[in-house]
Each structure stands twice: as structure tokens, then as C-alpha cells.
Design a protein that fits this description.
Layout (H helix, E strand, L loop, with lengths): L1 H20 L1 H4 L10 H8 L11 E6 L2 E4 L4 E5 L4 E5 L21 E10 L6 E5 L4 E4 L12 H5 L2 H8 L2 H18 L4 E2 L5 E2 L11 E3 L9 E4 L4 H10 L3 E9 L11 E10 L3 H18 L4 H12 L3 E4 H9 L12 H7 L2 H7 L9 H17 L6 E4 L11 E2 L3 E2 L1 E6 L2 E8 L4 H18 L9 H7 L6 E7 H9 L13 H4 L3
Parallel strand pairs: 4-6, 8-12, 14-15
Antiparallel strand pairs: 1-5, 2-3, 3-4, 5-6, 5-7, 9-11, 10-11, 12-13, 13-20, 15-18, 16-17, 18-19, 19-20
Helix pairs in contact: 6-8, 6-16, 8-9, 10-13, 14-15
InterPro entries: Aa-tRNA-synt_II (IPR004364), aa-tRNA-synth_II (IPR006195), aa-tRNA-synth_II/BPL/LPL (IPR045864), Lys-tRNA-synth_II_C (IPR018149), NA-bd_OB-fold (IPR012340)
GO biological process, one term: mitochondrial lysyl-tRNA aminoacylation
GO molecular function, one term: lysine-tRNA ligase activity
């Protein structure tokens, strides 16, 4: 194996010297009117062996080169063989070994006639002149590379060795999402990524500057969610609106998180939480049906059609698991009362920092993660956690006194969807913003929302009852492909991988 690599490198080095002397020969301009290998095979499949087909022009990439003496050479274009016989071609050079002109990885243009090989009767193209090299490969491609760390640092090499199936699946997923929403009269929009203050999600923003603005206005943040912009458009008159795009959160990098990721958010006027649940189920069914025969997509589709969506109530489940009636806690914003309500044996495991360090929102999220998500959301059947406390749902419409009309969807232990009926009362929304600002001031919780006076003022023009859904695209693709790490479904991996390429 080692000797073959060395020989291959020498072959490339020999031709690379020729390329340096005359690069135009190996990187010429192309002419229009050639077919791909896939198009050629589709057109000539079932060719009559006795028929004389007209001349064809096609382009492709050389996968392999095989020689049968100086005057006979075969190029494998990945699904199609090019047959070159020096005695049959115009412009031939009797003194040049045909195989020495080409390397695996070359992009070539071929002119010739479709035909069938004599022995196996497989479709091929018999070149009537030596194929033109359109772009020359200048280094050999390794036959395989099992070191995932090296592949992560060179995704171009990864795709060449292992194919681009992930990118194709990701395209199918985003296309299916758009198809679903477009068929229901939603309008796709693009909202600002840069603004003076990112808002709309419990997350820390990236900070940057714009030199074109006055010095006092140069400070900008990358959006953490498009939510408040999209709801402005609902107020403006678009009753069904969505955006599929990037968001940025200055947080950790791990198996399921990357600082930049892709989301889908859609909003619809005059829908309830129950309508949203129905829409989410139909959306997942549509996507799973559209991506083809992926094992995980088929399994998820079977779960959706047989078992549907399981539901859990956030506070009820928490009370049942801990043996404490959380509904009976007088003040849900008191860290001390939440600490006391947590079983003694679990306190240090859930809150290793102790009491009074975390904000109430952080404590509620940890309680939900430990007692509800980890214990009830590990299966493949999609599970909805419903009616979160309003204190951790500042943009959601209230349900009863201290709960919200909100649900999160979990599949196999990971969150994929966050949805709720939107708060459309300006006064309540302003108070929620102020409570969040107080949390930041008192506990230093950087994921707290800031007070967005401009958004509240926009609400005063009148915001219809609205439901909204947020879906993580990267995680959904990861699920359907059976992946375990988010970098596997990003074109060039996570941020730390990107920086090495």
C-alpha cells in the first residue's frame, strides 16, 4: 500500500512539471453543450448493440485510469467507462502512452459514440479523439482515511472519499419544510441579522461593530433569533410568515451545539396551541416522507402514524417525580423555595453551585431537565412537554395563572421544537421584559431577555392572536441521518473545525 502511494505521487509530480510549463493546456476554457454522466446514461440505457448511435459530448471526473498497452486506455467516470483506442482516434499521438495523460481526479471532456463493451455489454462511450483535460488533479487522493479527526479538518477530502449524501439529505429536508409551508400560503421572508440589540431568545449574543455608523451607534449584535422581527411582520399584516436561516449564540460547542446554526421559525395568526401541535405533527410526517428511505426517517414516521405525539405537563410531571406539589409553592421566583422543594438527595447534583447563585429561570430549567426531560423524553416517539412556567417563557401567552401556552418537542432525548401561543398584550409583554431585566441585574443571567421598547410599541398597533414554532434544522438532519454529533451535518463542521480548514 505504501509503495503504491509513493508511485502515484511520483506520477503526479511528473505531470505537475508539465502543468507549470503550460497551465492553459490543463485548464482550458470550456464550450457549451455537453452532458453529465448521469444524463448520458439515462439517455442511452437500453442501447441496441447493433445500432450506430450519433456522436455525444459529455463531461465528468476521472475515478480511475486503466491501461491495456500503449494504444488502449479506459477512464472510469463513475458509472460510465470511456474507451480510448489510439488507432480509432483523430489527433492521436502514437509515441505517447495514453494512460500517462490522465490521473484520477481529473475533470475531462469526452467526444465519442455510445456503445456496449464486447464482453460484459455494459454502456460506454468510445472516444473519437483523446479526451480534453478541463481541470487537472495535482495530488493523489488517498484510497481511504479512517481518522475522523483528519477528515474533520478537511471536509473537501471527506466529501471526495465518502460522498456528499449528507448535503443532499439536508437539501431535501429544507426543501420539504418550504414545500409544507408554501402549500399553506406562508410567505418566506428575511429579517435583519445585525441590529443594535439582539433579542427573542434566552441566549447571549455575539457583539461586533459597524464602522459606517456614527461612533455612538457602532455597537451591534448578531441575532439570536428572528422571532421579534417576524412577529412585527404579523403585526404589519402578514398573517402567515416564516424564515429559514442562521442564528448566532455566544455559547458552547459540543455534540449538539454550535455557535451558529440554522433554524426555521414560522408564525400564524388566529391559531391555538392545539393547532400548533397538529401543524408540527403534519410537518414532521411530510419531512420524513420526503427524504426517502432513511432508516431513522422511516422509524420516526412509523412512530408518528401509530403512536402520535406523547404529552407531559411540565409542573405536574415535576411534582410527581419529586413528591413535592410545585403548584403549591407560593413564589415561583424564589430560589430558596425552589431549593427547598427539590429532594435533598438531588439538590447538590442539580444545583452544585448551591442556592442563591442561579436565577429562578435557570433553576426551573435544571429541574425540568433532570426530572422531566431526562426521565421521560429518551424514546424515539416525539414527546411534548407542555405548559412551562411563565417565568421561563417570557414571550408566551399565559395559561391559567403562572403557566404558559407553550410546548417543547423532544425526540430521543434532544429538543427539536419550541412553540407557543405568542403574548399579544403590550402591557404584559413589557412587564415580562422588565422581569427579565431584573433577573439579569440580580443574578447576572446573561440569557435573560432585554427590554425591547420598540417591539412593545409596535404591539400597540394591534397584534392578532398568534402561534409560533421554532425548529432546529441541524438537529433534525442529524436525527434523520442517525448522527451523534452536530458537526456531521454542517457543511464544514462546527466552528472549531471551520477554523482549521
Amino acid at each position: 500500500m505504501k509503495k503504491a502511494v509513493v508511485d502515484s505521487s511520483k506520477l503526479f509530480a511528473t505531470r505537475n512539471r508539465l502543468i507549470e510549463d503550460n497551465p492553459s493546456k490543463y485548464y482550458p476554457s470550456i464550450s457549451r453543450g455537453s452532458s453529465s454522466v448521469k444524463e448520458f446514461v439515462a439517455r442511452w440505457r437500453g442501447l441496441d448493440p447493433k445500432a450506430r448511435a450519433p456522436s455525444e459530448r459529455l463531461h465528468g471526473r476521472v475515478i480511475g485510469v486503466r491501461s491495456a498497452g500503449r494504444n488502449m486506455c479506459f477512464l472510469d467516470l463513475g458509472g460510465l467507462q470511456v474507451v480510448m483506442n489510439n488507432r480509432e482516434m483523430a489527433g492521436r499521438n502514437e509515441d505517447l502512452n495514453l494512460a500517462q495523460q490522465y490521473r484520477a481526479g481529473d475533470y475531462v471532456f469526452v467526444n465519442g459514440r455510445p456503445g456496449l463493451t464486447e464482453r460484459q455489454r455494459t454502456l460506454s462511450i468510445r472516444a473519437d479523439r483523446p479526451p480534453t483535460v478541463l481541470a487537472a488533479a495535482q495530488q493523489p487522493l488517498p484510497p481511504s482515511l479512517g481518522d475522523r479527526a483528519k477528515l474533520k479538518q478537511n471536509r473537501v477530502l471527506d466529501y471526495q472519499l465518502n460522498g456528499v449524501g449528507m448535503l443532499v439529505t439536508r437539501h431535501k429536508v429544507t426543501r420539504a419544510l418550504r414545500e409544507f409551508l408554501d402549500a399553506r400560503a406562508f410567505v418566506e421572508v428575511e429579517t435583519p441579522i445585525l441590529s443594535s440589540k439582539a433579542n427573542g431568545a434566552s441566549a447571549e449574543a455575539f457583539v461586533t461593530q459597524c464602522k459606517a455608523l456614527p461612533e455612538s451607534e457602532r455597537g451591534l449584535e448578531l441575532r439570536v433569533a428572528p422571532e421579534l422581527w417576524l412577529k412585527r411582520l404579523i403585526i404589519g399584516g402578514l398573517e402567515r410568515v416564516y424564515e429559514l436561516g442562521k442564528v448566532f449564540r455566544n455559547e458552547g460547542i459540543d455534540a449538539t451545539h454550535n455557535p451558529e446554526f440554522t433554524t426555521l421559525e414560522f408564525y400564524q395568526a388566529y391559531v391555538t396551541m392545539e393547532d400548533l401541535i397538529e401543524n408540527v405533527r403534519d410537518l414532521l410526517v411530510h419531512v420524513c416522507s420526503a427524504v426517502g428511505t432513511l432508516p431513522m426517517a422511516e422509524r420516526l414516521l412509523a412512530e408518528l402514524r401509530t403512536r402520535g405525539l406523547q404529552r407531559l405537563d411540565f409542573v405536574d410531571t415535576l411534582s410527581r417525580e419529586t413528591g413535592t406539589d410545585f403548584h403549591g409553592i407560593r413564589d415561583w421566583s424564589s430560589p430558596e423555595l425552589l431549593w427547598e422543594a427539590t429532594p435533598v438527595e438531588d439538590r447538590n447534583r442539580i444545583f452544585p453551585e448551591g442556592v442563591g447563585v442561579l436565577s429562578p429561570s435557570q433553576m426551573w430549567n435544571r429541574l425540568g431537565g433532570y426530572y422531566v426531560e431526562d426521565r421521560h423524553c429518551k424514546g424515539l416517539c416525539p414527546t411534548l412537554i407542555c405548559h412551562h412556567p411563565s417565568i421561563i417563557s417570557p414571550l408566551a401567552k399565559p395559561h391559567e395563572t403562572r403557566l404558559s401556552k407553550r410546548f417543547e418537542m423532544f425526540i430521543a432525548g434532544k429538543e427539536y421544537i419550541n412553540a407557543y401561543e405568542e403574548e399579544n398584550c403590550p402591557q404584559r409583554q413589557l412587564q415580562s421584559f422588565k422581569d427579565q431585566a431584573e433577573t439579569l441585574l440580580q443574578y447576572g443571567d446573561k440569557e435573560s431577555l432585554s427590554v425591547d421598547e420598540a417591539y412593545v410599541e409596535a404591539m400597540k398597533w394591534g397584534m392578532p392572536p398568534t402561534g409560533g414554532v421554532g425548529l432546529g434544522i441541524d438537529r433534525l438532519v442529524m436525527l434523520l441521518l442517525g448522527g451523534t454529533r452536530i458537526e456531521e451535518v454542517l457543511a464544514f463542521g462546527s466552528l472549531d473545525d471551520v477554523n482549521r480548514q
